[in-house]
Structures
1.
Amino acid sequence: MSDQTGRRKTRQLYIGNVPIGGDAPISIQSMTSCPTKNIPLVLAEIKRLEEAGCEIVRLGIPDEESARAIRLIKNETRIPIVADIHFDYRLALESIEAGADALRINPGNLRNKEQVQALVKACRDKNIPIRIGVNSGSIDKTRFSHPTAEALVDSALEHIKILEELEFFEIKVSLKSSHVPTMVRAYRLFAEIRDYPLHLGVTEAGTYEQAIVKSSIGIGALLLDGIGDTIRVSITGDVVKEIEAARTILRSLGLRKEGIEIISCPTCARKEFDVEAAVNELLEKTKHVKKYLKVAVMGCVVNGPGEASEADVGVAVGKTGAVLFKNGKVIKNISKDQIISALLEEIFQ
Amino acid sequence: MSDQTGRRKTRQLYIGNVPIGGDAPISIQSMTSCPTKNIPLVLAEIKRLEEAGCEIVRLGIPDEESARAIRLIKNETRIPIVADIHFDYRLALESIEAGADALRINPGNLRNKEQVQALVKACRDKNIPIRIGVNSGSIDKTRFSHPTAEALVDSALEHIKILEELEFFEIKVSLKSSHVPTMVRAYRLFAEIRDYPLHLGVTEAGTYEQAIVKSSIGIGALLLDGIGDTIRVSITGDVVKEIEAARTILRSLGLRKEGIEIISCPTCARKEFDVEAAVNELLEKTKHVKKYLKVAVMGCVVNGPGEASEADVGVAVGKTGAVLFKNGKVIKNISKDQIISALLEEIFQ
C-alpha cells in the first residue's frame, strides 16, 4: 500500500481509447439499466451518461439479440462499450464480433477449456481486455462458507489463473461485496499480491442515500490508499446519479480537477446568512462549468475567513455585510445582496 | 493503526451520560443551526435531531444570552449539550454555570494563563470535558504556510499542551479540514502519537450531495482503520440529514446494528422487476424499525440468489416470479405481486 504518498503501480490496458491503470487518470464507468436490445432506449441512456461525464459504458448481454445490438449501438456512439456476460461463451464471441471494446466475464464459469481457448483467441485477435468480476455470489463454496475478503481474492485468482495459463494478461479485476469492510479488505489484499488494474465498486449498494454512503466509503478509502484504476458507483436508481457521485468522489480526493467545489459551513447559531440557499443557487448556475474552482460560502466571520482564504474565491458573511476573498486575499467589502453576483463574476471571468 | 483488526485504544470520557472513547459505541452528534437564544426554535431542532438518532447536541454560544439559554434548554431536554465557544472564556464559564455537559474551546485562543486556569478549574469542578477542535483556520501561520495535516496536528498538540500543563486530561480532539485527504491524514498522524478520543468530521463539506460523499470517505476511511470515537457529518442543509447519513455510515461498517439495510442491485439489462420502486416502498414502510435486518431485493436471477443468500431475508426476481430466501435458504416461490408483502411479513414477524 502506498497510503496517500502515491498511486499503486498497475499494468495498463485500453478499453477502446480509454487507458486503464498505469498512469492513466482514474476513469468513471456505469452500466445501462434498460434492455440492451431496445436500441433507442440504450442510446438515450448512453447519451445521458456521457453528458454527465461517464467514460465507459457496460451493457448486460443476456441473449443473442443483445449481443448483436452492440454493433448498432457502436455505430451511433463513440463511448467504449463493455459487454457483460455470464456463463455463455457464445454470447461473448458474438459481442466481440459485434464490436465490444471489452468483456466482463469470469472464465471459470465457462463449460470447458476449449471454450476458454476460443474466447481468449477472439480477445487476443481484437486486442480486447477481460474484466474478471467476482462478488459474494462467485466464491468457491466448497472451500469458503462465507464470502469473506479472502474468498473473493481466492475466486479472482482462480479465474486469473485460467487466463494466465493461456498467456493472456489483458485483465482487469473487481472484487465487489455489498459489505463495505469486506470489499475494502479484498481489494487491499489483492493489491498487495498482483498488479492488474482494479475496477472499484461496492455492489448491491441500495437506493441513493445508502448507495452513495457505501460507495464513497469503499471506493474512497481505497483511492486514498492509491488503489483503484476505474470506478463504478452502483445505485438502485437513475444512472446519472452514479456519475455525479463518482465525479464528486474523485474531485473530493483531488483526483479530478473539474467543476465547482463548494466549501460551505453547516451553519450554526453564528450564521448571518442563508448559506444553503446561496450555495444551491450557485451550484445551479455553475453546473456546466468545466474548470476547477474551490468556492467558499461561509455564514459567519469565526471560521469564515480562515477556511475561505484557502479557496480560490470566497465570501465570509458578517452581521452587516460580507467580505470577498480571492486567492487568500480580501478584494473588497460587499453587501449581502451582492454575494451571489460577486461570486459568479469571479467564477465566469 | 489497527487496519480493520480492531479499534484504536483511547481514553474514555463522558459527555453527560454518553461515554466517548475506550470501548464505548461510536456516538453520533450534530450542531443546531438556529440562534441558541431562540429557545423554542432550539428545542424544536433538538427534538428532531433526537428523533433521528442524534446522541449529543452542540450549540453555538456567540454571546451571554446564548450561554444563559443553556440552562433553560437543559430543563427541557435530556440530551447532552456541548457549548461551542470561540475566544471568550467568560462565555465558557457562563456555559458551564448554565449546565453545559462539555465545551468546545481551544485554550490557545484565550487571552492569558489566568483565563485558562479559571476555565480548567471550572471544568474540573463539574467534571466537564473539553473538545479541542482545530481546522484549517486555526493553524500557526508563522510556522505553516498551508493547512497541511502536519499543521493541524501541530495546532492540536499546542492546545493540548496548555491543558496538560494544568494536569487536565479530559480532552477530546478534532482535526477537521474541508480537504478529505488532509483530514484523513491528520487524524491518522494524531492517532499514532496520542490516545485522546477523536471526534471525526469533514468541515465545510457543502450541501447534501457533496457533503455526504466527503463525510462518508473521510469518516469512513478512518473508522475502517479503527480510528474515531464520535462522529459528526456536516451538511449545509437540514440537520436531520446529517444524522441519517451518520447512521448509514456506522451501519455500513457494521458499527451499528439497527434498522433495515437494503441490499439491492443497480439494475441492468437483465432486470425483471422495478427494483427501485420496491426498495423505496420497503424503506418507507420500515423506516421506524429499530432491529437490524439485511434485506435483499435483487432484480434478476444471475447475481440475485448469491447475494440474497447472505441477507437475513431476500427476494430474487426472475421472468415469471420470485424466490423468497431466509437465512440463506429458499422458503418459497412467490408471485411478483407478493414480493413487498412477503418481505414485510418477514421483517415485522
Note: Confidence is low (pLDDT under 50) at residues 1-5 of chain A.
2.
Amino acid sequence: MQALFEDMAKRISGWLSGKGEESMVVLSTRVRLARNVSDCIYPSAADPESREKIVNYFSSVYTRSEKLKRGRFLSAGELDPLDRDFLVERHLMSPTFMPKPDHNSRGLFVSEDEQVSVMVNEEDHFRIQGLAPGLSPDVAWQMVVDMDNEIGRFLKFDYDNDFGYLTACPTNVGTGMRASVLIHLPGLVITKDIERVLPKISKMGVVVRGFYGEGTDVLGNLFQVSNQTTLGVTEKEILEQIASVTRSIIEDEAKARERLLAEASNQIIDKIWRAYGILKHARVLTSEEVMNLLSAVRMGIAMGIINFIDIPLVNEILLLSQPAHLQKFFGREMNSDERDFVRAEMVRSKLN
Amino acid sequence: MQALFEDMAKRISGWLSGKGEESMVVLSTRVRLARNVSDCIYPSAADPESREKIVNYFSSVYTRSEKLKRGRFLSAGELDPLDRDFLVERHLMSPTFMPKPDHNSRGLFVSEDEQVSVMVNEEDHFRIQGLAPGLSPDVAWQMVVDMDNEIGRFLKFDYDNDFGYLTACPTNVGTGMRASVLIHLPGLVITKDIERVLPKISKMGVVVRGFYGEGTDVLGNLFQVSNQTTLGVTEKEILEQIASVTRSIIEDEAKARERLLAEASNQIIDKIWRAYGILKHARVLTSEEVMNLLSAVRMGIAMGIINFIDIPLVNEILLLSQPAHLQKFFGREMNSDERDFVRAEMVRSKLN
C-alpha cells in the first residue's frame, strides 16, 4: 500500500507548477461542481448499499470512458490512513472525506495530470474538482466542465428547471459550483491591513479564510478566497467575481509590500534572509515553521530580493514538507520527531 | 581623532588570537596588579593637580624606558567618547575608567602587542594589566611582572612589610593582584547546571560573574572567573587557584555538553546550525544577538559540528561586532540602526 503513491510523491502536483497568471501571489485556483445522480438518495442519508451503488455507477463510467480511463479510481478500502492524508495534502480530496476506511462505499477519481478529481459520495454523489496553477478560473472551469460533460454522457444528474442542479446542502443548489483561489498575503498580514481588507471583501459576497489553520493561526500567510452564493448567479458570474475580487486583493497586497519596503526596508529584507538562512541550515523543522519560513522566502522572490530560487521550488518544498508527503517521499512511516529531522534534511537538499 | 585606532580596529587583539591552552572554551586570561606611588595621595582623594603629577611620573617612565617606548601612552584629553568605548571593548581599560574626558589627569598605556596596559589614576595610581589568550595565567602573570619591574626601576611603590602592597581599596591590599579568566559555558547554561556549579565555585574563594550583562542577562554565555582574596596568599597561589578552578569548570562544561549531545542531539545541532544560518544571512543584527549566535557557533566548532570556521574568526567577529569597533572599522560614526545594518554586513563578509 505504501508504494501506492510513491511515484506521485516524488513529483510536484500540476497545480503547484508555479505557472499561470499572478503565480507569485496566487498559488492555485480551484473550481468544484456538486452533482447528484437522478433518483438516488443523497450520501448522508443513504445506507452503505445505496452508496456502493453510486460507486459502482462511477466505476462503470470510469471503465467505459476513454477520457477517465487514463486516470485512477481508488476505492476507500484500498487506502490506508497515510494514503488518505497524502491525498488531502495534495488537495485531491477534502479532509472530511474518508475520515476512516469504509470499504467500498466511497471512492476517489484522480486524472492522469492530477488536475481533475472526483470525490464519490462526499456530501454529494460527485464532487468534481479542477485545480489549476495561478489565477486561472477559466482553465479550472473548463476542466470541470469537460469532466461534468463526460460523466453526464453516462449518467443523468438531478436537475430542476427552476433551481438548477440539486445538491445535498441547499447552499450549493443552483450552479452547484464553488470557485476558490489560494493566495499568499504576507504584506497584508505584516502591515495588519488584512483586518481592513477582509471585511471589505466579505461585503462583495466572497469568503476569505486562513489556510490550514489549526485554531486561529493562519499558516504561511495563505488565504483561501471563495464564492458564497451558488444560486441565482451564473457560473460565468461566479468566475468573474472571484477573478475580480482576487485582482483587487492582489493590488492591496502589492501596496502593503511597497509600504513595507518604503517604511521598514531593512527589517523586511532581514526577515526574508533569516528565513532563507534557517531553511538552509536548520536540522529540525516542523511543517508549520516551514510554511511560515517559505512565506517569507516567497515574498522575497516576488520582491526580487532572492533571485536564485524559483516559485516552483518553493511550492515543491511546501508540498513535500507535509507529514504524509514526507513519509511517502522517504518511503517509511515516521513519528513527529523523526519527521521534523528528515523534513529539515529534505529542505536543505532541495535548496542546494 | 577618528583615525587614532583605525589600524588597531582592523586587526584582532592578541588576547583573542585563539591560541593558548583550552582556547575552545577559555577566551582569555587577565592578571592585573594595583600599584601606588609612595607618598602620593590616592586618585579618588586627590585634586586634579596631584593626579596630573602621577600622569607626569608615568609619562616620564614612558619616555625613559626602552621597553615602554614601543607602546603608546594616551592621555584622557586625547580621546573622544568613541575612542574610550573602543578601548573598553578591547579590554584595554575598565568601563568606569575615563567615563568622560578629564584632560590630563588620567592616562592609558598600551603595549605594542596590546597584551599589556596600564591605567594611570584609575582607583589606584597604576593598574597594570596583562591579557593572554586561552587559559594562560603564567603568561599573563609574567607580562605584568615584567611591566611592574620596569616601572619599579623608575618609581617607588607603596609597600608595607606586613601587609604587602597598599591599595586604595582594602580588598586589593597584599598582592594587589586579581587574576581572571573569560570562559564560555553554553553547556552549563543550557542544561541549567550552572546553578549548581556557581555556588560550588564560590565556596572555593572564586567569583564567577556573567560577562557584559546589562541587567541580569549573561550575554553569549560568557563568564568571568576571578579571585576574591588578595591578602594572605601569594601570587603563585592565586594563579594556581584560578587555573585549578577553571579546569574544574571546563570539566563540568564538557560533561554538560556530552549530556546535551546524548539527550538532545538534534536540538543542539539544530540550534548551532540555525545560529550559523542567521549570522550568514541576516541583514540586521544587534551586538547582543551576535554574541548569542556566536556562542552557539563556538560550541559547534568545539563539538566538531562546524569545521569550516575557526576560533580566531569567531573571536574576531565578536570583537568587531561591538559598537565602537564597528564604527572604527567602517571609519564613521553611526546610530544604532545603522550599526545593526553594517554589523550584519560585516558578519556576512567575515563568514564568506
Note: The interface with chain B takes residues 266-267, 269-270, 273-274, 276-278, 280-284, 337, 340-341, 344 of chain A (CB under 8 Å).
